[in-house]
Amino acid sequence: LLLAVGAVTAQTRPLPQWLTGIIAISGFLFLAFVAILVKKAWC
Predict the structure, then answer these.
(1) Which of 5, 9, 30, 35 could form a disulfide with 24 if both were Cys (CB 3.0 to 4.6 A apart)?
(2) How far is the C-alpha of 3 from the C-alpha of 23, rounded, in Å?
(3) Which residues contact 1 (CB under 8 A, 6 or more apart)?
(4) What are the TM regions of this chain, as residue ranges (predicted)?
């Protein structure tokens, strides 16, 4: 998943490798955080 996001980001606009990794990791953490909040709100 992270590799796919990094590849798509690298193709759309030329970002540095480290910046692409940071964006992918932060996006993944954000999605995980939202999933945890939804799970806590649901149960």
Answers:
(1) 5
(2) 11
(3) 28
(4) 18-38
Domain count, the chain: 1
Residue 19: domain span: 2-42
Length reported for the chain: 43
Q: At what angle do helices 17-42 and 2-12 cross, to 10 degrees?
A: 130
Prediction pTM value: 0.54
Q: How confident is the model at residue 17 (pLDDT cuts 50, 70, 90)?
A: confident
Phi–psi pair at 21, nearest 5 degrees: -65, -45
11-26 burial: b if 16+ Cβ within 10 Å, else e: eeeeeeeeebeeebee
